[in-house]
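User: Okay, second chain of the day. Same drill as before: sequence in, structure tokens out.
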Amino acid sequence: MTATPDSTAAAATAPVTPAAGEPKRSARIIGLDGPRGFACLCVLAVHVGGHYSPQTVLTYKLGLLGQGLIFFFALSGFLIFLPMVRKLFAGKPMPNNFSYAMHRLLRVFPAYLFIFLFANFVMRAVFVENAAVAERQFTDNGLGILSDPLTLLANLTLLHSYIPSMLQTGINPSWSLSLEFAFYIALPLLTGIAFFLRKRTSVPAPLLAMIPVVIMFVIGTTGKLYTASLVGPSGITDPKLLDWGPNQIAVLSRSFWSLADNFTYGMLAAVVFVAIDNGLLRGAIATRMRWWTGIAMIPTAAISLKLIDDNSRWQSSTVAFGSALLILFIIVPLARGESSKLAERADWAPLSYVGMISLSVYLWHFPVLIMVGRFGWMAGDSPLGMLRNFVLVSAVSILFGSLTYRFIEKPSLTYARSFKASK
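Assistant: Same drill. Structure tokens below.
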């Protein structure tokens, strides 16, 4: 359940150097780090609750907090597509693919590899078999040191989510990193089509920018339809196994083919943001965009709740759409060159800090919740018990995440930016 919290807003949205006479944009879009931190804590809470307070989660429908992961996907779509859209609208060349690839690799792999290896060989707190099959409340069933060479290699390379027998092994939320990397690979390939046509046709930039958006939407929609067609013939009736079990349907359900549209809506928000920023969307459409998005969030939330209650595979699509609406609701005044009190408040310092280190927190929290359970520090299955467990796991995960960010993530990001400067 983890869409990888991506790079900080500052890093992901750093603008190109403006041409002479062109107003200089801020190197950072405020208002997004805080929501990212909040979403990270929501994911952490539902994992802690699901592991140690399952009845409390069920009674109070706290599983809804897990939708914070979908916000990460939409936010990745927005932040990573945004600089590409800016260049496309400005008629500039596509961002350097080598620099892009190095930034994406160094953004995730150094921290992931360290945390995975530490959790595996030191903490002995990774899943050695499929978590949906092995996981039991307050037990170490299916946990330990992952030593099988092929499974270990698959986890180290984030390929385990594509192999039914290896799905949900290792740090089980890492499946979302596999999905993120599929997005990282697909995005420049699809966006390259738009840049190619920009040079050779007179098609307006906004329409060209929609090409990767539409293709990603089609990929996600067809993937969901195909995966749904396999459910009946499979004979699998347990919803948990269909979503997370060691079978091909679960692999497809977690794949880019089925979930590509979760990034699509954030990408669409990036196109809208840049269109307003460049004055292509103006007048009432631009000035009232926040109100349109606010109103649209109401039916979107209602539909999402219904789909979640039905355990529909389309639930992530509507949640991702609502996430994109939320992103625009927070930051759209910035595209008009105005201030946004909401964006400033959304970046409340504690949440903004968690957002900054969210990748490490996200990766640490599951091994941590396993370890504190082994030490006998976790409370029972009650609202107060779940709250205590959440606070404890959050504190330890944020501490570990702070250290990993300071000594691994931050130096890796600094090194990654050197490729941008030199290429």
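Residues 383-422 form the longest helix (40 residues).

User: Thanks, on to the next one.
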